[in-house]
Amino acid sequence: MKEEIEKLLAEVADLKCKTRKEVEEARVRFLGKKGEITKLFDDFRAMDKESKKTFGRVLNELKNAAMNKIEELKDTVADDTVSDGPKADLSMPGDPFELGSRHPVSIVRQEIVDIFRKFGYDVAEGPEIEDDYHVFEALNFPQNHPARDMQDTFFISAGHPNPLLLRTHTSSVQVRAMETMKLPIRVICPGRVFRNEAISARAHCIFHQVEGLYIDEGVTFADLKQAILLFAREMFGPETEIRMRPSYFPFTEPSAEVDVSCNICHGKGCNICKGTGWLEILGCGMVDPNVLEASGIDSKKYTGFAFGMGLERIAMLKWRVNDLRHYFENDMRFLKEFNTAVEV
Fold first, then answer.
1. 90 CA to centre of own chain
2. Do 305 and 284 form a contact (C-beta atoms < 8 A)?
3. What per-residue confidence (pLDDT) applies to 230?
4. Contact (CB, 8 A) for 86 and 323
């Protein structure tokens, strides 16, 4: 062992390295877990007491000499991690990164808002957490009216005379507009709504609506039909036709469902329109006199119409999306399909 120690001491003294990599290799060779000095210490542990007295001090001297030499070389050798190649030009533009785009529902919402703004409509918004009066009572839904069963509601404070709830439609914004705005009123009300429904490809507990309201003297059903026809042609193309089917809503009388001619098969029939040539897009009607009176508007002097549509439904027709759940899953593969749908 004495000869081995003297040999390693000489090697450590003559050790020369040019790069940090070589220094690290030397450290591992001498002091690593399987290094030469480490092996000597393993042999030292098996010696008798007298031999340990002889070799203990010189072994520690060897280890300290190796550690000091390694530290000395680290301070003197070149840093091989620094490239000798061309340096970065900090005046150059940064690396490009991918821009996002608006959500397809947001794109459709903005298109609808822009169309009705051209017709002179203002945009009105209201709270998503509403009271029972503005969501139901003021819209001709009495407490025990069977029409309340049409909408499964998320109540926040059930049992209160005027409980809080997550609004089931943006018609509550129309009520607030009638209560606060000066006549004539011409507004559209976009927003998110909530209903306690099972989630499927055709239904969701969260969705978005745009509702419209126009109140003035002498407003007729013919005005309503013309407004919807103009909207449909702006949204789906100048060749679009509409048809109106009688329906029922508590807050309008008379009421109608509106279909547009299928812009995919152009009325010939396809799997999107189920062979009928028509696609349902919205509900509408003349504002019920009771609704006008509840908001302090003289129903004998003023009349008006209202309409409402689901944004996800319009987006499904526009881009042929076959599953509502895609809009809420944040799947980047789906959302990236709309990167070119609008300028960002």
1. 35
2. yes
3. 95
4. no
CA separation for the pair 301, 322 (Å, rounded): 45
Question: What ranges in 32-89 are assigned the alpha helix state H?
Answer: 36-45, 49-76
Distance CA 2, CA 6 (A): 6
Question: What distance in Å separates the CA atoms of residue 54 and residue 36, rounded to the nearest whole number?
Answer: 19
Which helix (H) or strand (E) segment holds residue 259: the answer is: strand 252-261
Which of these CATH numbers, 2.30.42.60, 2.60.120.260, 3.20.20.70, 3.30.930.10, describes 104-338?
3.30.930.10
Rounded mean pLDDT of 50-57?
78
Average pLDDT rounded to a whole number, residues 247-270: 85
pLDDT averaged over every residue in the chain: 85
Query: How far is Cα 174 from Cα 213, in angstroms, rounded to an integer?
Result: 7
What does the DSSP assignment read for 286-339? EEPHHHHHHTT--TTT-EEEEEEEEHHHHHHHHHT---GGGGTS--HHHHGGGT
Nearest to 216 by CA among 287, 113, 285: 287
Q: Residue 331: is its pLDDT beyond 70?
A: yes
Give the C-alpha separation, 17 to 24, whole Å: 10
Alpha helices in the chain (DSSP H): 2-13, 20-31, 36-45, 49-76, 104-118, 132-135, 171-180, 221-236, 289-294, 311-319, 332-335
Q: What are the boundaries of each domain within the chain?
A: 2-76, 104-338
Contacts of 59 (CB under 8 A, 6+ apart): 5, 37, 40, 41, 44
Confidence of residue 214 (pLDDT cuts 50, 70, 90): very high
pTM: predicted TM-score of the whole model, two decimal places: 0.67
Q: How many CB atoms lie within 10 A of CB 143?
A: 9
